[in-house]
Every structure is written in C-alpha cells, then in structure tokens.
C-alpha cells in the first residue's frame, strides 16, 4: 500500500510540476498559495492514514518548492540567495523557467526582472543538475516484496514420486 501511494504521489507531483513549467497562466503568486494549500491537504491525509513513512511526502518536494518559489519575493540578491538555498529539489532550468513564466495577476505584484534571473543563474552556476526541464511522469519506482522466511526446513520436505523429480537429490 505504501509503495502504491508513493507512486501515485510521484505522478501527481510530475503532472502538476510539468503543467506549471509549460503554462504561463498558472505561474503566479495566487497559484503558489493554492498549490501549497492543496499539498498540505494531501500531507494531512497521508498523516491521517499513517502513510508518512511511505516516501510519498518526499515525492512532492519539487512541487512544494515550486509553490514556495512562486510565493517568495523576487527582487534583491538576498532573495536570490534564499531561492537558491530553498529550491534544492528543482533543477536550475526549472527554477529559471518558472521565473521566466511568472505572471503577476494584480497591481501589487511585479514581473521578475531579467537582472534577477541572471543573478539566480550566477548563484546556481556551480550546481551539477541534469539538464532536465520536465519530469518523467511515467517513471515507475521498483516494487519491493518483503522476504518472509518459512519455518519449514528443507530437510523435512518430502517430494512425492508423482512429480517425477528424480533428478533432485537430498544432500
């Protein structure tokens, strides 16, 4: 059950983040607020079902960081440093793309300046991320089956002659 929810939450993360990276109309402060609220609802549900150890909350980390990126101030060098230290699960390309797509929805917000984006790129220059923009939503985590040893020892097993397994010898 835990592995199923980890996979499901990864798919939610990948599809939502990919939409955020591809659609200019959803890159705004209010979308960041809405995403963060919805993610917190998912995290509360996982906690209520005692699935927080499943790895599912960790799969949502890039989406959480993208939502926080949309909500942070984007003006000064200190803001750039805060963004770089916060967004560790996002690649440099993803951070820059979200900042380029950021669209103010009211007069209190401002567009992200080109100088600020260059400042971010300079801060993230030393990162060795994969040059990846979109997440692979078809990624499948390996399924792990727990090993439960049998209480029956091999020397106590009787193999019926009707199985025609004469080539097996007891050692």
Protein model, in words:
With 171 residues, this protein is mostly helical. The protein has one domain. Helix content is 50%, strand content 0%. The protein is built from 7 helices and no strands. The chain has helices at 2-22, 29-48, 56-59, 61-71, 77-86, 92-101, 114-123. GO terms for molecular function: GTPase binding. InterPro entries: Dilute_dom, Vascular_dev_regulator. It comes from Penelope pileata. Residues 1-126 form the Dilute domain. This is MYO5B protein.
The major beta sheet can be summarized as: none
Mean pLDDT: 93
Main structural class: mainly alpha
The count of domains is 1
Unreliable stretches = none
What is the end-to-end distance?
Answer: 40 Å
Total E-strand runs: 0
Global geometry:
elongated
- Supply the number of helical segments: 7
Order of helices and strands: HHHHHHH
What portion of the residues fall into strands of 2 or more residues? under 5%
In helices, the fraction of residues equals 40-55%
Give the radius of gyration: 24 Å
List the helices and strands and how they pair.
Blueprint lengths: L1 H21 L6 H20 L7 H4 L1 H11 L5 H10 L5 H10 L12 H10 L48
Pfam families: DIL
GO molecular function, one term: GTPase binding
Protein name: MYO5B protein
């Amino acid at each position: 059950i835990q592995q199923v929810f980890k996979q499901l939450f990864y798919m939610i993360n990948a599809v939502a983040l990919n939409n955020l990276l591809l659609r200019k109309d959803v890159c705004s402060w209010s979308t960041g607020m809405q995403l963060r609220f919805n993610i917190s609802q998912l995290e509360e549900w996982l906690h209520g079902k005692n699935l927080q150890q499943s790895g599912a909350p960790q799969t949502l980390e890039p989406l959480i960081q993208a939502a926080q990126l949309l909500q942070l101030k984007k003006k000064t060098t200190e803001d750039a440093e805060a963004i770089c230290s916060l967004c560790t699960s996002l690649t440099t390309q993803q951070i820059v793309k979200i900042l380029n797509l950021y669209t103010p929805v009211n007069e209190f917000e401002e567009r992200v300046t080109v100088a600020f984006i260059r400042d971010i790129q300079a801060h993230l220059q030393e990162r060795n991320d994969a040059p990846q923009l979109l997440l692979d939503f078809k990624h499948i985590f390996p399924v792990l089956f727990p090993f439960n040893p049998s209480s029956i020892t091999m020397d106590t097993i009787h193999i019926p002659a009707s199985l025609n397994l004469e080539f097996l010898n007891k050692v």
